[in-house]
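Lab notebook, page 48
Experiment: co-folding of the full assembly
Goal: obtain a model of how the components sit together before planning crosslinking
Operator: M.T.
Materials (sequences as entered):
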Amino acid sequence: MIAERHNRESEAFASLSRASKFYGEFAALKDVSIDLVPGEVHMLLGENGAGKSTLVSLLTGVNALDEGERRIRGKSTPVLTPTESRKAGINAVLQDFSLSPALTVEENFVLAREPRKGIFLDRAEARRLTQGALDQIGLTVSPKQRVSTLGRAEQQMLEIARALGGEPGLIILDEPTSSLSHEETERLFSVLRGLRDAGWALLYISHRMDEIRRLGDVVTILRDGLRTGHYRIADVTNEQMVADMVGRDIGSFYPEIPHHPDALVLETDSLSSDGKFSDVSIELKRGEIVGIGGLVGCGKGDLARALFGLLPIDDGSFVLDGEPVADLTPVDMLDRGLVYLPQDRGGEALALNRSISDNIVLEILDNQESKWLGFIRQQHLNHIVDSLLQRLNVQPPLPKKIVGELSGGNQQKVVLGRALSKARKVIVCDEPTSGIDVGARAEFYRQLAHVCEEGAAVLLVTSDLQELINVSHRIYVMSEGRVVAHLARDEITEEKVVAYAFGEEVQKETD
Amino acid sequence: MNQTRASSGHTLSSSKQLASSILRFGALPIVLIVCVVVFQLGNDRFLSSMNVMNMTTQSMFLLLIALGQMIVLISGGFDLSVGAVVALTSIITGKVMVAVAAMYPESVGIAITLGFMAAIGVGLVCGLINGIGVAILKVNPFIVTLATASIFQGITLVVSKGVQVSGLPRYFVIEIGSGRIGNVPVIAILALPVCFCVYLIIHHMRIGRYLYAIGSNLKSAVVSGIRVDRHLIFAYVSCSVLTAFAGWLLTARVSSGEPLLGGEFPLASIAAAIIGGCSLRGGEGTVVGVIMGVAFITILGNGMDLMRIGSNYQMIVLGIVLIAAVVVDRYRASLGVR
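Observation: model returned without errors.
Model output:
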């Protein structure tokens, strides 16, 4: 632990001392201290529900402190509204962006602080300010472009750009790279390092160990609302950080999954979907996990959607378990034993205002055993749900709990529970672990290993390089809508995957 | 440490649940009782058996329509055409029954049966149009049902030339419209089993689960392999059929086919459903809740009648109550799903 707290506190741009926040009797945050010092990237680490968002909300003034002290620029600030916090130089770039998609880049940039000439908007000045900030951050979009036409990475950069200008203050980033490609991540990191060197304080929330090492100067680890660790990054091991975060030994993070490929179950030949991907030929056998890697936008997610019937297939052939597939809808694909786990859990996979049980049983209501004269046999369904909740270790294991109240990791388990409620031949997962904590991830991998051993085939579409190379038996790498490489297990290395993902030219250079 | 957090987390969520269940059901029965007490103090005829029977009969029309509205609300839409469907049913069934009764003056049963079938037919056709507009053409339900309300009302006025259809079979008007078996109005005897069927379909059959799933998240319903189109069409068809059935009973009650019947139902049915716990965001609502919502609106109207509060003022009150219900709905959402 770092001893010289007094020094740090006096240097800090913003700090919390023994801060607590209660909801009823429940302590979301208890006795937590943190000092955000200019010129330093402070990583914040913790599982979902550990209190990270609460800590951020105390800094941004969204929530009031129940105990402890908050200091900004050295001054004690017991009362802080979000507006005041922004004015004081505290900028949060959270996961749900605060941009208005219908407005242009420029309109968003100057929103609520529009430069004026008399009573009229000064468009020239707005353009100048926007362009200046875009140049500073290296974002090449037109100020006249609508925000809805920007990618996620660009929107995020724009959010950061909006925080710039004025005195250096504090920027809070919540898992900013979770949907960024490798290249975009690099660009973001160089921007963030630039800000740090210019005297900004950064608070960076992440689940990814490699990011924490590469970017961070100090780290604070939270668990169950308590601060369980605080280190200089150079002085601490990954194992120590994980142990502080999880509070228990999670065993080997990536399970050893025996590779016993069986019969061919899915095969595509020159599959194409206009404007999304083309000429994709892959095969998948029972009992194996095949990864599909590549940069964001390379078409791997679209491929997953097309295999499930959510995107039209324009050319090529697709054979599932010996039978050709053409023009099929999700309903047909589920009938044939292929299930899809969407990337966007809340938006696409779950009915958030319904119970765990209602969400899990959706696909088995049709079963003969689930009904009697057309009426639902709730008891039968309850047995299935209970056994799945136990198998997947859903917390809390209460079938009537509303899904929207669960953590991201547990929501993902409910999605997986629905996928496992029936026998499946192929499970297609699209970015299954984005935004879920370390413990839930490890558990998710164990479940994948389990279904794989039971003879199902898993297609794992992921942008998480570590996950891709550690969980998959084989890997296809996609780039610009095409499969550019097929790597067997003993050929898989991080360097190769990255090189192929960036396309053949880079590949030649590395050779 | 984990232990204490888990247990305190649990009390938190159960107190949250208590709060949200009070908001869902708990508050409504209390409000109902308060209304009953106030109106009884205001006029001691309020709880007389005659007035209670009267209220029961009156509430059946709104109950059927509000249950239909609930089905559509659960699926994530709403139906503004229910008033026009009532008017169209009234004119069509009136014309059918008068014509058939003229052909077979001896057997009044045929006229009533065909009248009933005409009502169901009107409901099926109107519901299909709404359902196809929403599910297949993928037009916003607000626009679809606003437009079809205009279409159905226009057809009604064209067919009826704006005049009422009189000379309905006497048996229909007297035995169904105002008849009783024992002390129970025939209208209630006909309507309540239908309501029970709605309960079974929504709460005990697959189709109900699918409608909740569609209403709470359309995309996840697609990914779960639910045939969204046909279930949405089912929702609009059942709403229109229930509405047409109510329109047919109401025609018996008012003893003639009326081209302007039912204008209050779009607002009243949505109000009753929302007060009873349905959500405009879809995926919420129960039959029991809607029954209480209908009881609330009926009691409010009847009580104000007895206290000689004019219908113009009642319109104002109903509007205020609806806005209040939506505000409560939003508060409920803030407690429930985040």
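Interpretation: Residues 47 and 437 of chain A are 5 Å apart (CA to CA).
Next step: discuss with group before ordering constructs.
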